[in-house]
């Protein structure tokens, strides 16, 4: 995907956030973007974790980067950042405990034995119940056919520290 096009999808994640949340995200983004380049690079992301006293290895920071960096240009732009913030909102709506992940996975169309994939339609219904509106951009994050491993990684408390920051 060409880098320039990433800005055109900027409206999508915004729909999931109210103006206050977007403003808050913007401030946070600028505080992480130390050189005011408009993007967050790996170094800035690492410094952010350092500042928040998270003991992250370089590999872990890189994993976070990979998760948020949807267009794979190696940096986090504001659209990607907003998407991550919107994602966190969905996570907190679920308020998922690690042992609940399997049951949520099953509710989303997977199987209790962790086989199968989540069903986009079921996720949509479930989120509706929670009063969370989610647009097609969010499904890019969820993935059309997400298996348990990927699904759990979103809700895994070990990755939760990522979510609690962005
Ligand atoms: Ca990027």
Question: What's this model, at a glance?
Answer:
The chain is mainly alpha-helical and 166 residues long.
Describe this structure in words.
- With 166 residues, the protein is mostly helical.
- It is 58% helix and 2% strand.
- Strands 1-2 form a two-stranded antiparallel sheet.
- The longest helix is centred in the middle third of the chain and has 17 residues, at 78-94.
- The chain is globular and about 45 Å long.
- It binds calcium ion.
* DSSP summary, beta strand count: 2
Task: Report mean pLDDT, rounded to a whole number.
Answer: 76
Please identify which CATH superfamily we are dealing with.
EF-hand
Class based on secondary structure composition and strand pairing: mainly alpha
CATH architecture: Orthogonal Bundle
* Strand line-up in the sheet with most strands: 1-2
**What does the largest sheet look like?**
2 strands, antiparallel
Shape: globular
CATH class: Mainly Alpha
Spell out which ligands are present: calcium ion
Strand content: under 5%
What number of domains?
1
| Helical content class | 55-70%
Count, helices? 10
The protein's oligomeric status is single chain
Measured between the Cα atoms of the first and last residue, the distance is: 24 Å
CATH topology: Recoverin, domain 1
* Rg from alpha-carbon coordinates: 16 Å
């Amino acid at each position: 995907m060409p880098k320039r096009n990433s800005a055109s999808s900027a409206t999508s994640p915004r729909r999931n956030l109210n103006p206050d949340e977007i403003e808050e995200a913007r401030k946070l983004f600028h505080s992480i973007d130390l050189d005011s380049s408009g993007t967050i690079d790996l170094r800035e992301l690492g410094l952010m974790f350092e500042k928040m006293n998270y003991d992250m290895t370089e590999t872990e920071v890189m994993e976070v980067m990979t998760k948020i960096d949807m267009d794979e240009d190696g940096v986090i732009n504001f659209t990607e950042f907003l998407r991550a913030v919107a994602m966190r909102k969905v996570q907190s709506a679920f308020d998922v405990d690690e042992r609940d992940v399997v049951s949520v996975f099953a509710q989303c169309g997977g199987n209790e034995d962790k086989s199968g994939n989540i069903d986009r339609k079921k996720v949509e219904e479930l989120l509706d119940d929670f009063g969370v509106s989610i647009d097609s951009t969010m499904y890019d994050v969820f993935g059309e056919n997400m298996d348990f491993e990927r699904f759990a990684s979103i809700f895994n408390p070990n990755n939760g520290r990522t979510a609690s920051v962005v």
